[in-house]
Write a structure and sequence with these properties.
It is built from 18 helices and twelve strands. By secondary structure, the chain is mainly alpha-helical. The protein has four domains: about 160 residues, HUPs (Rossmann fold, 3-Layer(aba) Sandwich), CATH 3.40.50; about 120 residues, HUPs (Rossmann fold), CATH 3.40.50; about 55 residues; about 90 residues, Arc Repressor Mutant, subunit A (Orthogonal Bundle). The strands form five sheets. The protein has a three-stranded parallel beta sheet with strand order 1-2-3. Strands 4-5-8 form a three-stranded antiparallel beta sheet. Bound molecules: glutamic acid.
Amino acid sequence: MSIRVRFAPSPTGFLHIGGARTALFNWLYARHTGGKFILRIEDTDAARNTQQAVDVILNGLRWMGLHWDEGPLTSDATGPCKGDRGPYYQSQRRERYEQRVEALLSHGAAYEHEGAIKFRMQREPVLIHDLVVGEVRRELTDREQQDPDFVIVRSDGQPVFHLVNVVDDLEMGITHVIRGEDHLSNTAKHICLFKAFGVHPPKYAHIPLILNHDGSKMSKRDTGASLTSYTEEGYVPEAVLNYLCLLGWSPKNNREIMSLQEIVELFDLPNVLRHNARFDMEKLKWMNYEYTRQMSADRFHELAVHTFARAGFDTNRFPLDYVKKAIDTCRDKIKLFSDLPGYAGFYFSDEVQCDPEAAAKDFVAENKPRVTRLREVFAGLGDFNAAELERALKETAATLGVKAGVLVHPVRLACTGKTAGPSLYHLLEVLGREKVLDRLDKALQRM
Ligand code: GLU
């Protein structure tokens, strides 16, 4: 049997990390088994259905690298699926739901009631063989005892979640429904609908919820609840992915940092944990830092360029070699990529904005002859490299009878606008003689 799984989010304008993890587990299971991962946008609720809300989901999945495998051909090429196949949209599948409802009506599995259509629900308890939760025997609740039937099409003609969800899982040949445990309460209804359509239901795997660190339920407003916050704060996608894997799943040997390839190999539904997972921001931050430290120079470069671009710095205006060297001076220095523009934006801006407090301290008349002297030395240097620059600065300081720091502070401020940043001599080398002299001249005018 070839495995087919799906992620079926409703576009609410928000991608909860619980949802992101559901998508991830489905994707991992598909990749582990050589099956297919399908994305289905459950957008029958027209009021909430905006392209913007859908984009939050698509962008989140793209950021994590969770590509979907199939879907109808789309004119708007929402990729990243091969051949620009879209996700499926329930809003485009109305006719299918109508046909299915007709079928249920025709053999008496559904009936009209006050303008709505209701499904004739089984009266006996429903057994669910869940791959994660185990055996669940779902009895009718007291309220359901009175009337277990439920609405599948509202009186305004809107098909209801239970119906469209099951019709699509059926028509898309979904073999495994992997979703949050909050949907376990719907599963008895879904199983009965499958039976009414004359087919076996898929296998179910309800994954435990993600709680806050203190064990409380995670709401939309809790820190870290939205996947978008990680993209905006400059987290490394691989780190977030690795961390999310461990929320509710664990390889046998308690390993933590693992490559995606390893995770794909090891991931399986039987080792999804049954207890709720607690979200630990500190651990995620640690993991993010480890990934940042260990990633290849190329990957660091790629993420850095992306971060600068988002912050409005166009690195394309500069020679590639310059950009590479500039970014190299930031390795091991930043915790989050979003720190980069503040840390090293001076490489890519024409005007240096100086910290006013530091300027009041360093750009003083007393420093003018010193910096003027250093400028002359820099102008005459044979090789404008870090070692030479360091030697020259220290020698000049000694000649002037001051500590090196007396020159270091104004030079750093003049060239970067800040009091801290990458190694001074390396950043001067990267900026190059022309920019350095020009920035020193501008600072001298202020002394
Ligand atoms: N649209 C539902 C949700 O976002 C999907 C439930 C399911 O995966 O079956 O919760």
